[in-house]
C-alpha cells in the first residue's frame, strides 16, 4: 500500500473541508450583503453549520479530527513525521512559524462557530430576500 499517497489524499480532503468551512462563511456573508439567493440554499447552509459544529464539539471534547489522525498515521507508515499538534496547528507552525497553545484554537473555533450560528439565525437559509423597492 502506498501510504504516502493516502496521506496526501487525506490531506487534500482535509484542506477542502477547511476551505468549505472558511470560504463558505465568507461567501454566505458576501451573499447576505449582495443578495445572492444561492447563499440561502438550505442543504448548503445546514451542511456548513454541521461542519463547523462538528469541529467545535471535537475541540471542546479535546479530540483530534479523524482526518488528522488518519493522515498522521499514513505519514508515519510512509516513514514521514506525523502531526504533533493537529492539522491546523501544524500547518500554522510550518507556514508562519507560529505556535499557539491548544486553548487558542478552542477559542478561535468557538468564535468562528458562533459567527456561523449567528449568520444562520440572522440570514436564514431558505427564506426569500426582501423585495427591492424603487427607492432602494
Question: What does this molecule look like?
Answer:
The chain is mainly α. It has one domain. It is 69% helix and 0% strand. The model has no long low-confidence stretch (mean pLDDT 83).
List strands and helices in order, with pairings:
Elements lengths: L2 H32 L7 H19 L5 H12 L9 H10 L5 H21 L14
Helix pairs in contact: 1-2, 1-3, 2-5
Quick recap:
The chain is built from 5 helices and no strands. The chain is an all-alpha fold.
Offer a few descriptive terms:
single chain, elongated, mainly alpha, 69% helix, 136 residues
N-to-C SSE string, H for helix and E for strand: HHHHH
* Overall geometric form: elongated
Biggest sheet, open or closed, and with what strands and sense? Answer: none
Share of β-strand residues: under 5%
What is the mean predicted local confidence, pLDDT? 83
Cα end-to-end separation: 61 Å
